[in-house]
Design brief:
Layout (H helix, E strand, L loop, with lengths): L5 E9 L2 H19 L4 E6 L4 H7 L5 H9 L2 E6 L15 H8 L4 E7 L17 E7 L12 E3 L3 E3 L6 H20 L5 E6 L5 H14 L6 E6 H10 L6 E4 L1 H15 L8 E3 L4 E3 L18 H17 L3 H19 L13 H16 L1
Parallel strand pairs: 1-2, 1-3, 3-12, 5-10, 8-9, 8-10
Antiparallel strand pairs: 4-5, 4-11, 6-7, 11-12
The structure holds nicotinamide-adenine-dinucleotide.
Length: 366
């Protein structure tokens, strides 16, 4: 892969609090780039989302898709509005269309305790939670998303699709990701989460996982059923290193993981394919708090940090990689100093949290 020093970012703030959390994230990213003489960032804001669909009849305009295609990375807020739906009753969810369009098969969801934020668990080891959930993001039970059928108002059917091509890419990504983490001192263990005891599709998923392990024999593996995994994410989440799972299971388990961290506002994510990647907080548009300045921007800021790390690694730019780590460390220091978002019963809103992270970055630079 070529070395690069300028990165173009397509920014899709989307709906509700998506807009509110992306604004300070872009500000922090601009601040980091302005301090560096080794990389620059350009941001192009693009229309997309359920409210854009309401206005124009288009959720993801061609011009936005073109900007996403030519960008080095895509930064997204959140999309969807529960009252706005297609005639079949499903929601307008262009963020899912992006995953399909760019074949973003690996949904990376780090679940990590933030210093100073009390874990949802009473056990003191809640502070040691540090694992990554990799959610297959283009097929599984989401494969035929808008093509499920309702037959004569009598029964409804959706279909699970697991393909060898996507599984091989997904597992190779997950093993390589686990190997990278191991270099930083983690156990180097990848758990395949499935329901292979019941479904042929998921027995196939597990079989391909075992086959791909042959190329990564330095990585320890284990198999777990999704129901037992839900239990162990509550009983002993500190025991996980990296897990990889089907799309729908990953959708549910990643919200459980966000709950362990303190709430949706803390949980970042990246959807990664071979040539493109979207970085976005795991949460949605949160209509219940939109427009009130109460949204926790931490998940969006940490997603921005993941974006810098990904760009730095992909385009051999150590300064961008380091800037991503600085941003994550600044978040940790800001929370260690006592920030308390509304989400956990505190009084710190979007601006207060973003300002504290900015101050932590400045302190480091001074
Ligand atoms: N990736 C995405 O864009 C995405 C993900 C999930 C849901 N959605 C869409 O978002 C809309 C709302 O969905 P939902 O209510 O199920 O999920 P949600 O994540 O928007 O909200 C769930 C709960 O978490 C809270 N919350 C979420 N993010 C927060 C933050 N940053 N700070 C503080 N509190 C936060 C909300 O107030 C709400 O109580 C729906 O239209 C849904 O389809 C989009």
């Amino acid at each position: 892969m070529t070395t690069k020093t300028h990165f173009e970012i397509a920014v899709l703030p989307g709906d509700g609090i998506g807009v509110e959390v992306i604004a300070p994230t872009v500000r922090l990213l601009e601040q980091l780039a302005s301090r560096s003489d080794s990389f620059t960032l350009g941001f192009k804001h693009c229309d997309a989302g359920a409210l854009h669909y309401q206005k124009t009849g288009e959720a993801l305009p061609d011009a936005t898709m073109d900007s996403c295609r030519s960008a080095d990375a895509i930064l997204l807020g959140a999309m969807g509005w529960p009252e706005l739906r297609y005639p079949d009753g499903t929601e307008i969810a262009p963020q899912l269309d992006l995953r399909t369009e760019f074949q973003l098969f690996a949904g990376v969801r780090p679940i990590r305790s933030i210093p100073g934020i009390p874990s949802a668990l009473s056990d003191a080891r809640g502070a040691d939670i540090d694992f990554v959930l990799i959610r297959e993001s283009v097929e599984g039970l989401f494969a035929l998303r808008n093509e499920g059928v309702v037959i004569d108002d009598r029964e409804a059917r959706d279909t699970m699709v697991i393909t060898r091509a996507i599984c091989e890419q997904l597992f190779d990504f997950a093993f390589a990701y686990t190997r990278e983490r191991k270099k930083a001192g983690t156990p180097g263990r990848l758990t395949c989460v499935d329901k292979a005891n019941v479904f042929a599709s998921l027995a196939f998923f597990r079989k391909i996982f075992d086959e791909r392990h042959a190329g990564f024999s330095d990585i320890a593996v284990e198999h777990a059923y999704v129901d037992a995994t839900a239990l162990n994410m509550i009983k002993k989440p500190w025991a996980f290193d990296v897990m990889v799972t089907e799309n729908m299971f990953g959708d549910i388990l990643s919200d459980l993981g966000a709950g362990l961290m303190g709430g949706m506002g803390f949980a970042p994510s990246a959807d990664i394919g071979i040539n493109n990647a979207v970085f976005q907080p795991s949460h949605g548009s949160a209509p219940d708090i939109a427009g009130k300045g109460m949204a926790n921007p931490t998940a969006a800021i940490l997603s921005g940090a993941m974006m810098l790390e990904w760009l730095g690694t992909r385009y051999t730019n150590p300064a961008a990689l380091a800037a991503g780590r600085q941003l994550r460390d600044a978040v940790d220091r800001a929370f260690q100093a006592g920030l308390a978002p509304y989400e956990i019963g505190g009084k710190d809103g979007t601006s207060a949290i973003a300002d504290a992270v900015e101050a932590a970055l400045e302190q480091e630079h001074a």
